[in-house]
Amino acid sequence: MDIENLVKMANSIGDFFSAEPDRELGVAGITQHLKNFWEQRMQLAIIRHYEAGGEGLSDLVKTAVGQLAKAHSPQR
Amino acid sequence: MAVRDCDYGTPLSDSTQTVSLEIDGFKVTVPEGTSILRAAATAGIQIPKLCATDSLDPFGSCRLCLVQVEGARGLPASCTTPVGEGMKVCTQNDRLAAVRKGVMELYISDHPLDCLTCSANGNCELQDMAGAVGLREVRYGYEGENHLNAEKDVSNPYFQFDPSKCIVCSRCVRACEEVQGTFALTIDGRGFDSKVSPSQNESFMDSECVSCGACVQACPTATLIEKSVVEKGQPEHSVVTTCAYCGVGCSFKAEMKGAEVVRMVPNKDGHANHGHSCVKGRFAFGYATHKDRITKPMIRQKITDPWQEVSWDEAIEYAASEFKRIQAKYGRSSVGGLTSSRCTNEEAYVVQKLVRAAFGNNNVDTCARVCHSPTGYGLKQTLGESAGTQTFDSIRKTDVILVIGANPTDGHPVFGSAMKRRIREGARLIVADPRQIDLVKSVHVKADYHLKLRPGTNVALINALSHVIVTEGLVNEAFALERCELASFEKWKTFVADERHSPEALEDVTGVEARLVREAARLYATGGNAAIYYGLGVTEHSQGSTAVIGIANLAMATANVGREGVGVNPLRGQNNVQGSCDMGSFPHELPGYRHVSDATTRSLFESVWGVTLDAEPGLRIPNMFSAAMDGSFMGLYCEGEDIAQSDPDIQHVHAALRAMECVVVQDLFLNETAKFAHVFLPGASFLEKSGTFTNAERRISPVRRVMTPLAGYEDWEVTQLLSNALGYPMDYQHASEIMDEIASLVPTFTGVSFKKLDELGSVQWPCNNEAPLGTPTMHVGTFVRGKGRFLLTEYVPTPERTSSRYPLILTTGRILSQYNVGAQTRRTQNSLWHSEDRLEIHPHDAEDRGINGGDWVGIKSRAGETVLRATLTERVQPGVVYTTFHFPESGANVITTDTSDWATNCPEYKVTAVQVTKVTSPSEWQQDYREFSEEQQNLLEHRLAAVD
Known about the structure:
CATH architecture of the largest domain in chain B: 3-Layer(aba) Sandwich
Strand order of the largest sheet of chain B: 13-12-27-26-25-14-15
Oligomer: heterodimer
Largest interface: A-B, 22 and 35 residues
Shape of chain A: globular
Number of helices of chain A: 4
Shape of chain B: globular
CATH class of the largest domain in chain B: Alpha Beta
Largest sheet of chain B: 7 strands, mixed
């Protein structure tokens, strides 16, 4: 999967949830959105990118992808 | 079914009070306000009439429906005289007979006596009335001055106008005014010189006529008549079915001679259209029997190979073996399927079932991805259901109409007419659109406010409207506190009250004067029943879902949801967008909008389908393309969708299709996607199959087979064959059995069956034990999700910015006569109105570039370049250009980019930064496309015949 495109998509999800004043809720919203709507290979690709430093990901999205990585860890 | 309907003469009164009277000695009880003419008809008493018909208000001009009322003076016209309590009416006596005969003598003295060769013979009200009044002679003779040599107007491709047969009853003029709202016809001249005139005595084709057919429908003689009837004669039976064009879902009678459709006539009992139609549904059905239809299955190994016609068995076996091979090589998730909004619910259901049960993954998506997927997301998150809240008829009780990013008179013409009627009755209108659409200003319609925003700033505008409503105390606190989540409501109020969302602060962003925003917000919040209608101008943006959420917030904050006359109304583009979404066509949802991760729902489907289902969401269409480019998605089953024309950044789409090892296309024609296919499975048109469509108001309507499928199978049968070949058995004998299975699995469909649709005509879901007759208005008393949820809608500018290289914004849209990718309408005479896509450009922008109307111009974006001819118009604002996408060679989607909605990946068709320059030759892409297309057409024409 084109990681540049996935980063762009993840950040745009982050833009929506960044309006949430409670940062934790915002992060949870992003993580849940990725779980609900991203196919496995997309989720794994963004996790791999995060684990490699997450270049280009906004701070909020990095945190959310980190949560996603934790949720995935038992399966990986 | 009989061809001719009973005509009650005047419209039904909606009064709940009744009146009893006596007609010809029979007691009749009817609603107050009913005409004597209609009251008589309900009792089976036919009063002669000519200028009256039940789709139009009474006119009282023909003097044929006169009656005698005891105690009243003279002979009143029964069409214009309402019933009265205790009234005693006589419809037949010598005096009335003499008057009526005299009237008919005058009519016939100036009418051709060619009944035997007249195209209306057997279906002519004038002929019927001559018989009814017993006309035997015309004392005036036929030699006097007359109109018998008046010239026929055959300019319209679908109907003709023969003024020699006109009785000047004004039914056509009134239909154009009252039903269609175009006011293209008038009665020109006075007395003997009176004649029906399109516009200023122009031909129909050159006039403002939009060819909706209302005048033809209303004409009692052969004056205005379909050319197909002139050519083929009167139909002998009819079948009620549902139009396969836009999301209005009009009910039609397919009027037939044997297995041939003579004409499509709007069904006056149709719940969505009430007897009205547009040029597409009424006339543009010829594609169904067009010579381009492919009726034999074809296969080929490579897209550079010639096609080989094969038997159905061979084609299905080849497709199945290819999918199995690909899955064995690349993994279970390497294949997927697409359902189509142009197909029936039953077809969408079996395609997604095939993907989930036979392919074993959730890689299914649908063309709603590229139109209304943000509606599904946004309304589910806020109101709890991925659907519009109202009926179309709800607009009859609307006081303020807010249209955002929709062009109903072009995209949803029959509903557009209903909307215009309500506006003529006094409803106020706010239009938010970058272009001056017809609703902004047309005959007898003028928007109170046109918020001419910059493309891409919907969310900013909605926030500004919300800001005014909150800060000026216009919120309906009682409703919001009772019906919505308190915490979300309070948070939202704080958010939108921030000064950065004020109309003044956002004026430079939206380009809309703050004063107009404030006044429009006040009108929406305080003007009575306010309803929002929106379209793809809302959804096809990087913030499409945010805008839908913002619209729902507005409706909840002002208590404009949960009753008639109000609501949130997405105008769906294609006929079955709502239905294809309902049927589980999205990769994250099973039928009925339940997430695939929900174990309870999965186990329900698993028990009926007999397979284990994947609990993870699958790939969306654009994700499939990305996966194809990286080699992990190699096989696609595409039914009824043309992704190679309709999807954005088309060069990327084409590259992805070329990268796949097996593309199976099931369609009527060798469409653009089929040019990249390895297997072609012939599809069936809506006239050749049974099933249901669900329109924009959640109305499930029957699609009935009126002719045998040209290729032998209905589409669901083809999917079933493929599923069986893949090893997952399906054994439906009829589409109704598929609906029975849907009803057993989807809580909002448990009361739906073909039998019920036969009884009711149509039904709006939810239709179940709680609502056995369906649900016209949603969220009454409580929201589907319980409490309504406000969400925060921060405006985030699109990444697609203008620059010195790309200084203009391109936005795209539709036109009345063409439909979507044009595969259907381009194969009809509708192309006489729109034979090419053009670029609309403001005269100032054109002048800066030395462009004149009709010049070829290059339109270049960051994604690609194409060339179109320019039309100079002030409908677009300076800085904005506009085009349609109905012709593949136009390459509108060569220019559009891969930017998409954050939540759903719905493409941002509506905002592309471009430069426009005068050019002299087609773009490089167009030249390549032409070469490729000709090559593919050649491979089709030289296809190898099947060996028997």
